[in-house]
């Protein structure tokens, strides 16, 4: 089971993913540029996405995430979404995760701000471990 994430050159989401990796999660980063090939997933995964854009719902989902989720096989294997954001943006906080969850009909599992706090890493890691265990039990 894998955590797929997009992080811009600011590396906020990357820093959070590195903390998850240190906690034992397998994390894979989406390409930074849309001209690069995207990933093709072969196992269930959870997506971590930051929010971008100039206004509510406008450009909130990074283009790299859209390109990745436009691959039908990737959408089929998506188990849930985690949002990264900044509470200074008010009601658009983690808007990309809400949009992806709604469009792909998967749960929004968690939201964290900026680099995430140690408790965010702990909560996400524990939640992912429970999710992976449930997925494995259903396969058995």
TrEMBL record:
Identify the HAMAP family for this entry.
NrdI (MF_00128)
Gene from which the chain derives: nrdI
Provide the taxonomic classification: Bacteria, Bacillati, Actinomycetota, Actinomycetes, Micrococcales
Put simply, this protein is called Protein NrdI
| InterPro entries per record | Flavoprotein-like_sf, RNR_Ib_NrdI_bac, RNR_NrdI
Single Gene Ontology MF annotation: FMN binding
Q: Which protein family is it in?
A: Belongs to the NrdI family.
Q: Which SUPFAM superfamilies match?
A: Flavoproteins (SSF52218)
Instruction: Give the function comment from the record.
Output: Probably involved in ribonucleotide reductase function.
The lineage's top-level taxon is Bacteria
């Amino acid at each position: 089971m894998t955590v797929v994430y997009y992080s811009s050159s600011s590396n906020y989401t990357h820093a959070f993913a590195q903390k998850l990796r240190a906690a034992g999660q397998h994390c894979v980063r989406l390409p930074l540029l849309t001209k690069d090939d995207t990933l093709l997933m072969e196992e269930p995964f959870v997506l971590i996405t930051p929010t971008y854009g100039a206004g509510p719902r406008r450009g909130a989902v990074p283009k790299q995430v859209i390109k990745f989720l436009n691959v039908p096989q990737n959408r089929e294997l998506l188990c849930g979404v985690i949002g990264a954001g900044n509470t200074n943006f008010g009601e658009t906080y983690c808007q990309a995760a809400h949009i992806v969850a709604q469009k792909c009909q998967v749960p929004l599992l968690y939201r964290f701000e900026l680099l995430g706090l140690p408790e965010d890493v702990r909560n996400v890691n524990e939640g992912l471990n429970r999710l992976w265990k449930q997925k494995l039990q259903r396969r058995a």
